[in-house]
Amino acid sequence: MATLYRKYRPQNFEEVVGQSHIKLTLEHEIESDKLAHAYLFCGPRAVGKTTLARVLAKAINCAERKEGKHEPCNKCDSCDEITVGRSLDIIEIDAASHTGVDNVRENIIAQARVVPSKLKYKVFIIDEVHMLSISAFNALLKVLEEPPQNVIFILCTTETHKVPTTIISRCQRFDFKRINISDIVKKLNYIIKTEKIKIDKSILEAIARQSEGHMRDAESLLGQVVSIGGKEITQEEADLVIPRSDLGEAINLIGMLGQKDASSCLELVNKLIDQGVDLKTFLNDLIEILRKIMFAKLSPALAEKLGLELGESLEIKINEVSKDLSLNQLVIFIEQFIKARGELKGSFVIQLPVELAVIRLCSGVNATLAASRDRGQASVAPSSISQPQQNIRPFGDAPSNSAGRQDRPIIASAPNQTIKSQSVAPTPNVKAKEVANINKEQVLEKWNEVLAKVKKYNHSLSFILRVCEPRQIDGNQLCLAFKYKFHKDRVSDINIKSIVEKVLGEVYSAPLTIEAIIDESLDVGDQTADNAVAKEETRAGVGQAENKEGTQGKMIDNLLKTFGGKVVE
Q1: Cα–Cα distance between 232 and 401 in angstroms, integer?
Q2: Alpha carbon separation from 170 to 29, 36, 160, 437 (Å, rounded)
Q3: Is the pLDDT of residue 167 over 70?
């Protein structure tokens, strides 16, 4: 008994499933009698390349085909011989087993020189043409470019990139596509009606999904199901052959998530585990369905083009569960389940990452923050958002004089998160709204102390502040002048500015802020701060020079030149 895919192999263009864009072109060429001398059929396996090549060979050689028509009659002697494979003028060659140049010379070049014995055209159908060797391609090239009259070549391949461009350029190329689920179901439905088999449509859709667009695979799988179930096939019998599909359960889970029914979601996940379902595969299907729904929210045409094909019954079910879901929800769902999928391997309870994702999505516990954490952003604990943050202080605020609290870590909020401003209890030295009652002289007097404390936080910052000039103080704002723009930009950085203002608050016991300006006329070698520092360092250098010789004296000279200082008594 012939297998189903051989028994129901298409014998004319109408019976070929899918590939409408290719059939339409070939039909017009046949009707107008404007045939090419070489065709290249390329695309995935089991989508009709060889079948369409045979139909084309039959149509152009049909003795009863009327002018302006394209379908073969399938009744004349020519059609019968081609159908059963007895025609001497239709030569099929398997290039996978005839790769050498000698085979090309003997089976193609030599026979191409001989006129057709009976038919109008001699047709060479070369399957898996990409398997030919380079020398075989070179031998084929000349005859393919200028074939004898009434000779047509049809090359079929699944790997077009392995075919030389010199061959491709001499052929009329057609790219085959995978067959969609609805077309496969139609063909399977036609087969079961002809065979008088009773089977549910959902089983046919499951077979079509499992075949992944390959018609021959779908027909072979249907043959296995029929061999087990006979004339009436139940779902239980079909499950023995068809690998388990949990797309329906995935859609049910999406519906429960839309209803925020966490309890039912958790029961479903654990039921799948008890049934031995591969949770990783289930999540793959779930993410694919969510992706399809997301596309549908953006554009129905986009979902049809890029989304996963599921069959009519599941499509209806998806439309029902997706009504109440927003685009933003779908994005968060996908992010959470992608994260859960990545955590499955390292979890000691295999379903725990999925359960946590479900709880987040159903209860709204920090789902958005969890998604941002997955993208590498810092986040704040849920309780820290809803409750007053009395232990959080701005970075630049003055700390307490207590040594135990001075180095207290600073809590930073997550990016893009808004935290309500909280009142900070004033420290003993700084009142919340105190206006600084100090002048420029008082600032300069303690500027060395500022530089020393800044150095503890940022070593390089102290050098930048040494070449600045404290200009004036207006209320609580201290103006600092810099000669160079990069110094000014550095101090204006929010983090650096916070450090400086923090130190100013510690030294002057007042909530000072700073404003940086540029003064290109500023003489960086004559600053008050530099002079003061130079004085201290020079005094130390002179004291040591009294007991040391040679190199130390030179070091003092260098210090004096660097800081523009002088030795005083």
Answers
A1: 88
A2: 17, 10, 14, 91
A3: yes
**What pLDDT does residue 453 have?**
86
Helix/strand/coil (H/E/C) assignment for every residue in 144-168: HHCCCCCEEEEEEECCHHHCCHHHH
- 198-208 core/surface letters (b: 16 or more CB in 10 A; e: else): ebeeebbbbbb
Torsional sign, CA 397, 402, 403, 405: negative
Q: Exposed, middle or buried by CB within 10 Å (0-12, 13-18, 19+), for 543? A: exposed
DSSP reduced 3-state for 516: strand
**With helix as H, strand as E and coil as C, how does 184-235 read?**
HHHHHHHHHHHHCCEECHHHHHHHHHHHCCCHHHHHHHHHHHHHHHCCEECH
Instruction: Kindly report each contact of residues 270-273 with a partner whose C-beta sits within 8 Å and lies 24 or more positions away, as own/partner.
Output: 270/351, 272/246, 273/350, 273/351
Residue range 491-512: mean pLDDT, rounded: 87
Q: Please write the tens of the pLDDT for every residue from 28-41.
A: 999 999 999 999 99
**Count of domains for the chain:** 5
Is the dihedral angle over the CA atoms 488, 492, 498, 504 positive or is it negative? positive
Residues 234, 213 within the same domain = yes
3-state secondary structure of 548: coil
Residue 547 pLDDT = 44
Both tokens of residue 348? 């000691």
Give the Å distances, CA to CA, from 120 to 6, 116, 260: 27, 7, 69
Cβ(514)–Cβ(504) below 8 Å? yes
Q: Which two tokens stand for residue 468?
A: 């600045």
Domain extent for 99: 4-175
Average confidence score pLDDT of the chain:
80
Reading the block at residue 73, the tokens are 């009659």
Judgement on whether residues 364 and 476 belong to the same structural domain of the protein: no
Within 341-496, strands assigned E span 469-474, 477-482
* CA-based nearest residue to 36, from 21, 25, 20, 23: 25
DSSP string over 279-346: HHHHHHHHHHHHHHHHHHHH-HHHHHHHSPP--HHHHHHHHHHTTT--HHHHHHHHHHHHHHHHHTTT
* Residue 367 to residue 347: CA distance in whole angstroms: 20
Give CA–CA dist 552/543, Å, rounded: 11
Residue 406 forms part of a structural domain? no
Amino acid at 332: I
Query: Do residues 269 and 365 both lie within one domain?
Result: yes
- Domain check: are 66 and 125 in the same one? yes
pLDDT tens, 363-409?
A: 865 444 444 444 444 433 433 333 434 443 443 344 444 344 444 44
| Domain assignment present for 426 | no
pLDDT of amino acid 126: 95
- Contact call for residues 224 and 241 (beta carbons, < 8 A): yes
The neighbouring-strand residues paired with 154 are: 39, 125
- 170 and 185: one domain? no
CB 62 within 8 A of CB 72: yes
